[in-house]
TrEMBL record:
<protein>
    <submittedName>
        <fullName>LysR family transcriptional regulator</fullName>
    </submittedName>
</protein>
<dbReference type="InterPro" id="IPR036388">
    <property type="entry name" value="WH-like_DNA-bd_sf"/>
</dbReference>
<dbReference type="Pfam" id="PF00126">
    <property type="entry name" value="HTH_1"/>
</dbReference>
<dbReference type="InterPro" id="IPR005119">
    <property type="entry name" value="LysR_subst-bd"/>
</dbReference>
<keyword id="KW-0804">Transcription</keyword>
<keyword id="KW-0238">DNA-binding</keyword>
<keyword id="KW-0805">Transcription regulation</keyword>
<dbReference type="InterPro" id="IPR036390">
    <property type="entry name" value="WH_DNA-bd_sf"/>
</dbReference>
<dbReference type="InterPro" id="IPR000847">
    <property type="entry name" value="LysR_HTH_N"/>
</dbReference>
<feature type="domain" description="HTH lysR-type">
    <location>
        <begin position="8"/>
        <end position="65"/>
    </location>
</feature>
<dbReference type="Pfam" id="PF03466">
    <property type="entry name" value="LysR_substrate"/>
</dbReference>
<comment type="similarity">
    <text>Belongs to the LysR transcriptional regulatory family.</text>
</comment>
<dbReference type="InterPro" id="IPR058163">
    <property type="entry name" value="LysR-type_TF_proteobact-type"/>
</dbReference>
Length: 303
């Protein structure tokens, strides 16, 4: 006779979510501040209580089974309900508290988000704002962050996507470089100058591949970080494409061929679909989007 599954308690589901997101007992243990062996025993106990295997064990990590995938959505719903209940009981309807982590490309993380996050926290001192600057797309399914800022809307995953704003880029160089370099009167003239940009095989989004836009065949000085590219430009080492919103931070940089060449890209705010009913994150997300729109407009007006 088949044994009837038992209802897990919230602590069991917390352990399950940590393993599902970290894909290993050790990663889950770090989040839960528990020994990995203890986490393993809790998962084994939960699987026994549920009467089903929730994970496939492999050398590469723990992957969800079909039963685990079904439980995941319900576990995340319980997580949101608990969070909303705590918020309601705390009497903090207007005050936002707790940790909020935002993953973003380093251009956005360096030049836009600090002012935006500082402004949000000034209004809500109980928030702990964290910015994760990564040269890749943040994995929300593994809960690396609560929000991701991306330059392309993701096409897969249980995610909600909101366009924040457009931003602009131009070909730039330091005035010291332009003072001695060969004249640049047409886009074809760029080929005679050293180009600064991304490391080609480390570009994580096609929207960041600017080389074809200027007809450059390669980069003389490259980095996967926008801040390093701006450092090369500050040293009068060549030409590069830079965000207009970054130019006020680097005195001496000048737009080149501004009347004939520019690029337009967009930022998107991405969050996990399970957070759609989380009132706290919804409010924070609205403030992030509004703040980024205002900051892009403010800095581009100064460029």
């Amino acid at each position: 006779m088949q044994r009837q599954a038992m209802d897990p308690d919230w602590d069991d589901l917390r352990v399950f979510l940590a393993v599902a997101r970290g894909e290993s007992l050790s990663a889950a243990g770090r989040v839960l501040k528990r020994d990995p062996a203890t986490v393993g025993r809790r998962i084994a106990r939960l699987e026994e209580a549920m009467g089903a295997a929730l994970f496939q064990r492999a050398p590469s990590g723990y992957g969800l089974t079909v039963a685990g995938e079904r439980l995941l959505a319900h576990a995340e719903a319980v997580e949101q309900a608990v969070a909303q209940g705590v918020e309601a009981l705390s009497g903090a309807a207007d005050r936002l508290t707790g940790q909020v982590r935002i993953g973003a490309p380093d251009g956005c993380a360096n030049f836009l988000l600090p002012r935006v996050c500082a402004g949000i926290r000034a209004r809500h001192p109980g928030l702990d704002m964290q910015i994760v600057a990564l040269p890749r797309v943040v994995n929300l399914s593994r809960r690396e962050a609560d929000f991701a800022i991306t330059v392309s809307p993701p096409a897969a995953g249980r995610l909600t996507v909101q366009k924040i704003t457009d931003y602009h880029l131009h070909l730039v160089a330091h005035r010291d470089y332009l003072a001695t370099a060969r004249p640049i009167e047409r886009l074809e003239d760029v080929a005679a100058h050293p180009v600064i940009g991304y490391i080609p095989d480390m570009i994580f989004d096609a929207e960041l591949d600017y080389l074809a836009e200027i007809g450059a065949e390669g980069v003389a000085l490259a980095s996967n970080a926008v801040s390093v590219q701006l450092g090369f430009l500050r040293e009068a080492a060549g030409l590069g494409i830079a965000h207009d919103f970054s130019l006020p931070f680097v005195p001496g940089l000048q737009k080149v061929l501004a009347g004939t060449f520019s690029l337009t890209r967009s930022y998107y705010l991405v969050r996990h679909a399970a957070d759609a009913r989380n009132g706290r994150l919804h409010r924070v997300g609205d403030m992030i989007a509004q703040g980024l729109r205002a900051e892009v407009a403010r800095l581009e007006a100064m460029a």
